[in-house]
Structure formats: C-alpha cells, structure tokens
Batch of 3 targets.
Target 1
Amino acid sequence: MPRTVYAFPTVNDVSASLRDFVLRAQDEALAKHDRFTIALSGGSLPATLARGLLEHQTAFQWSKWHVFYADERCVPLNDAESNHRLAHEAFLAHVPIPAEQVYTINPDLVGQPEAAAEDYQHQLMQAFAPTGDDVRFPVFDLILLGMGPDGHTCSLFPGHPLVNERTLWVSSLTDSPKPPPSRITLTFPVLNHAHAVAFVTTGANKQDMLVRVLDQTEEGLPAGMVNPTAGHVYWFLDEPAAAKLQDSLIDRPAAL
C-alpha cells in the first residue's frame, strides 16, 4: 500500500505542512482539469486545516474548489453537530468559494437518512458524471479524514455492516455508535478511488489506536482500510500522537 506517515513537533506545524500539501494537491489537480475536488471530515479537522489555509489565502484558487463532505450528521446545517457548520465557521465563511460549489446534505431530508444519502449520491453523480457518463465511482483529487478513538473514519465504524458496502457511493446509517445516530457517509469504494487521501490525527490520546491502525493492519480497523487503488494515503501526525509508532514507519521532514 502506498503510504507515507509524517510526524511534526506541534499541531501548528501539522497545520502549516497540511496547507502546503493541500496547495500542491490543488495545483496538481488544476494542471489536469479545471477544478479541485476535495472532501472533508468533521471533528478537529476543519480547525486544523483552517489554521494553515487562512494564513496564506492568496495562494489558493478558491473559485476552482468543489467541496464535499466525507460524512455528515443528519441534522440541520446550523446545528452544533453539523460537519458543514464546523467547516463553514472554521474557514469556508472566510474564503470566496462559490456557494454552489459547496455540496451539503439536503436540509429538507435530515429526518430521512436513506433519502438524504440518495440525494447526496445524486449530487456526486451530477458533479462527477454530469453528462451521464458511465462512472463507476468518483475520483476525488483529495479526501481529508480524521480517525476516531475506536479507529473509525467518516461514519464507517468497526464491525458495522457499512464497512462491507461495495456498490453505493453514499450510504446512510441510523445506528451510529457515536451520537448523533443518523448519518450519511462516503463508502470505502469512493475513498479508495481517490487520487490522494490524507488523515490528520493529533494528540497523545491517539497513540494506541495509531499503533493498531498503522502497525497492526491485520486487525482491519476502518481507518486502516483506506487504501487508494491508484492513489496514495498520507498521515499527518504531531509527535504526541506518533510517540508509540515504530521509527521506521515515520518521516519527519523539516517542511513539505
């Protein structure tokens, strides 16, 4: 599996290096086609991302960004649990990405998770196959993910039936072990068709789970199941998170 694990001294260093990484991903995408497609998770990721992006806004071609969510809670967009609200408050409200290029859960369907997932899959189809082309799965330029304390990523939880979904682009669940229970999520086939996937994981409380995900891959935890078939997976860690990993797994660049 093409995988690179970076460790940086502090969260601020993670943010700065992630900014440079995203800028390169944008530029590589725009050299191939006229847009940059990126999917985001929630949790602490939007704030970590924003800390770097907002310091160097002028380096980015915001008008070419198309922003999706790797998963979303079935709540109103202004709810405290909404991933979109987290991303909007952290940085989307502060950069000139056209509103129609930020793809959110349909607020009229938050009480109907299955319909919300179908609608979001339709949004992806309109974005990635607008002329009805036969596209098996979308290919994102970049997907940014976090890792939960149980090794979940997106809303793909250990032992949940959704980890075995191989057909749908977007699926729903109403029994999330972490509240709120109703969510929609990208599935593994979509994650694993991306050009690049980057995990952003910080804090000493992630040490033991990172060992299980990165050193003990045979355990099959969801975060360890992200293996792009024609792309690359990156991990951005701070030193407290990386403390228990084997040194041979880790790259500690001065800068990216």
Target 2
Amino acid sequence: MQDRAWWLAAALSGALMVMAGAFGAHALEGSLAPRLVAAVETGVRYQAWHTLAMLGVLAWRSACPHPGQHLVLGLWAVGMLLFSGSLYALALSGLGRLGLVTPLGGVLLIGGWLALASCVLRAPRFDSGER
C-alpha cells in the first residue's frame, strides 16, 4: 500500500480526535474554566478538518501521485500536533499560554493549504474524456 504511514497517521489522528472530543465533552466539562473547554473544542475542530483533508489528499495521491502532496501532509501533521496538541496541553495543565507553539502550529496549517494550492496548480491537467 502506497503511503501506508500517512494513512496510519490519519487514522490515528482521527482516533485521537474522537477521544479528545469525548474527554473534553464528558470528563472536563464542569471541572475546567469555560475558556479551557473551548480550547479543547477548538483543537478538536481543527484536528477534525485537517484529518479529513489529509484523507482527501491521500485519496487524490492514490489516483494521481505528485511530489508536493507529501509536503502538504507533513505541514498538516506537524501543524495539528503543535496547534491542537498545545491546546489540549493547555486545558489539561492549566498553565496558561504555551508561548508561540499554538500560533506556529496555525502557521503550519496555513502553509499546508498554500502548499496544496501550489500542488494543484503544478499537477498535470486531465480531462475525464481523455482517459
């Protein structure tokens, strides 16, 4: 299977996302300040969208491999780890801000989307009628 490690990473991200969402909704609700519960919800939301986006890129890659797709996947994976992970750590530790970790994760997520745009523009064009 091509890109087995990326498929595994997306699957594990999806599982972690569901666990973090359930933990935030059931275990943390009422025991944390509302802003910390909101931080977990934000982390889960961003992780969910980017995990789904990774699956889309992997599906595209299986049909039409392009070298730039790995950059997209890597930026999103590290971005989710830093962005969502720092929000989860913030809620669990209550330490307040984690410096530039969360914004850096956000920049990497944005970079992944820009890399995707570049990848799409550089990918070979094809018409469904020409296949």
Target 3
Amino acid sequence: MTAVSKWGAYVLAAFMAFMGIQKFIGDVPIFIIIEDNLAADWGLTLPFIDPMLKYATGLGELAATVILVAGLRLIGGGLSLALIGGAILAHLTVLGVYTPMSSAPDAEKSPMLFIMALVFFALSAAVTYGAFKARR
C-alpha cells in the first residue's frame, strides 16, 4: 500500500472521529432539520431520526475510525463511503446544499457541510480503491 493511501486513511479516520464524536457531544441540528423538512415537504412524521439515527450514524463513524486505524482500510473505507454517501444523499434530497451553521434560529447558512461530504467521499473512494488494489 502506498504512503498516500496509508496517510489518506489516517486523515479519513480523523475526520470520521471528529464527525462521530459531534453526534454524541456536539450541537448537531442537521437531524432536527431532516425531521422538520420531512414533515413539511412530504408529510412524514419520523420522531426517531433525532436522536436514534443521529446516534446510529455517530456509532458508524466511530466504527469506521477504529477499523481504519486498525489497518483494515478496505472495510473502513467502504463503511466511510456508505456513511458519507448517505450524507450526500440527505443533502440532495432533504437538507439542501446550504445548511445552518448552528442550531440558532437566525444561523447563517453555508454549503460547508456539503462540500466536506464531497471531499471526504472522494478521499474514502481513494482509500478504498488503494486498499483494493493492494490486495490484488
């Protein structure tokens, strides 16, 4: 495995850890926004999204971190691809590209979360591909 793939996996693991820890101790209004948008746009009332989906996503992100750091880059990269792919799908269907920067009612909206998802999706793909090629 190349050094780029190895260090890319560590950068990806750090990102996944950062995002996963936020789900448990940080201010993450995205899941409440998902609930609100589903109710407003599609008439779906799904009260389990926050906190259950938030915690499940956080656990998945922390699991991907541990798997990547343990050196199982194909599995960790694949799990990261799935989780970040879900985030991109949520942005494109329910959240929108511009999301609030905090849970304050008048919070500024920014595309930063969507851009981060795209960048780290590409990194996940590169790590997964590098791990796959190394196994062959």
